[in-house]
Every structure is written in structure tokens, then in C-alpha cells.
Amino acid sequence: MSVNEPKLSVPSQEALPPLSIGLWQHKHVLDLDDFSPDEINLVFEIADAMSEVISRDVKKVPTLRGKTIATMFFEPSTRTRASFELAAKYLSADTISLDPSKSSVTKGESLIDSLRTLQALGVDTIIIRHPCSGAPYVAAQNLETSIINAGDGCHAHPSQSLLDMYTLRRHLGDLSGRKIVIVGDIMHSRVARSNIWGMKSLGIQLIICAPPTLMPHGLNEMLQKCDLEHVTIEYDLDIAIKDADAVMPLRLQKERQQSGLISSIREYIQHYQLTPERLSYAKPGAIVLHPGPMNEGIEISHEVAYSTQSLIEEQVTNGVAVRMALLYLIAGGKNR
Question: 159-305 belongs to which CATH class?
């Protein structure tokens, strides 16, 4: 290092909470149903350190030097893919980005064989998005390499849920007892499912709101079976949003609405769009989140999306810090 080169402080085990050494037990990150509150808070505390790294002029530390991180996305992605790849590079890991449309998958190679090839090449962690629910679980069962689920079908998106909660925590502090509303296409939302588990762990009073046809079948039974007493179902957004600390509309997945689950986009907008008037029913200064991409003018109005209460762009920034924390724990951390 030259005398003029800035010195970089590396997030180290000594800088982490005392409980971190023995707390983290995950080889993979597949969903949040097996995360304890302490583990979620550990991710947040490490993300705080990573946020400091991101704020520097030189956004790089040698924490994962010598590690190799691969991304393999079978579905389109902007925010998740870019933030994972930036997270790996900021931690000085070597990165490989595979496009399945230009890989041997197009020649009939199976998902597991493709991933085993990456494992044989010495990749330490594979970040995978797949249209089939459960694909990352199959990968984790068949590989020694660590797997991070970047979204599987309509099932789970753990890193998105973590960055949602991290953003809330930065603005609201302790989240226990806070009232959060998630509204929209719950049936097709992997974000909603992971947030149900994560927010339950932190004691959040979560309200799930959607038309009855966009609620997952058997959701009530699942909530009862899993003792998710902090989660409430509500079909009327005006009622759900009353005194909420934060509201998160979900993208109406128009490509999945061909089977008549809603009568019309116009009617959906009338009853479920987050507008300034509806937002006024929440607590003063209530936070607005959105996992993206947004359908402006459908699930959220332009005025709300770009209001001072909106933290949508901050979510994107926080996503890099949270994914740096996950890579630190999975690819480095106590297993280094």
C-alpha cells in the first residue's frame, strides 16, 4: 500500500457483537422461517458496518479476498442481481455472473449439473434466482457450496425481506409492536411470504391486505398452524392502513392476472392503490416502502412514490449493505 493510498478498516470479528461468534449457524440462506430474532439483528448490525463502507469514497474492503461468488439468475432482475454483485465486489470477492440463456442449460443440462460445475470450479457461494419454487432448496440438498436464494417462484425472497426490515429499523428503531401493512398481490409475492416470517420474528404487528382472490389459498390455516399471532388478514385497505407505522404496496403482477383473479385494473386501483388520501389514515409521517419494480399509477400513485415519506430509493441502497452482511456471514464470517 502506498503512502497516499487510503487505509481501509475491515469489519472484523472483534468489531461484531459478542454473540456473533457462536450465533450464526447457517450454511445457506433459503428463507427466514429458520432465522431467530438474534440472527436477524446480527445481520442488521453487520449491515450497519457495511453501510459505513458504502458511504466512503473508496467502497471496498478486503474482507472476502480469495473467495469466489457466482450469480445465476433464471429470471430477469435489476435490483437484486446488481446489489448482490456490487456487494461481492465491495468485499473484494471474485465474481462470476452466469446467464442461463447462454449456458449449457440451453443444451439440456440440469440445474444441479450446472451448479455442480460451478462447485467443481471452486465457487464458494452461489446466488440463485429461479422461477420454480423450491429450486434453491434442491440445490442446497445436492451441493456442498453455500446457496443464497435470490427469489424462487412465488415462495421466498429472504434478502429482500431483510432489507425491508433493515430500512424500517433505521427509521423506526425497535420494530416490536410496530404496525406494518403489506398490500397487493399477496398470492404471487415471494416478498410477502418472507416478510411474514421475518416480521413475525421481530414482533411486528403485520397486516396483510389484498382482494380475496389475491390471497394465497390456505393462508389463514398456515398462520394458525405456524402460530403467527402477529399477522392479521384484512381485505379493506382503508381499515388496514389506520394508524400504520409503514405501508408497503406490492407490484400487481399483471402478467399473472390473465385468469380473472381481479375484475379489472381500474377496480383494483380504486380499492387498493396507495394514494395520498389513503396514506393520511396512517400515522403522521408513516413510511412508504416498495420492493420494486413499481407500477406507478396502479398499486402506488406517483405522488406517494416520490413523497418525502417514501424510502423506496433508500431500500435499494440498503439492499447492498444487507447483502454484503449476508455474504460476509455465509462466505466469510466465523467460517473463514
Answer: alpha beta
CATH classification number, 13-153+317-335, choose in 3.40.50.1370, 3.40.50.300, 3.40.50.700, 3.40.50.1000: 3.40.50.1370
Partners of 232 in the β-ladder: 207
| 144-194 pLDDT per residue, tens | 999 999 999 999 999 999 999 999 999 999 999 999 999 999 999 999 999
Around Cβ 25, how many Cβ atoms within 10 Å? Answer: 9
Task: Yes or no: say if 15 and 50 are a contact pair by the CB < 8 Å rule.
Answer: no
> Residue 225, SS3?
helix
Bridge partners (DSSP) listed for residue 98: 72
> Are 195 and 158 spatial neighbours (Cβ–Cβ below 8 Å)?
no
Measured at the alpha carbon of residue 159, what is the angle toward residues 249 and 239, in degrees to the nearest 5? 25
Q: Which residue has the cell 450446472?
A: 114
Amino acid identity, position 287: I
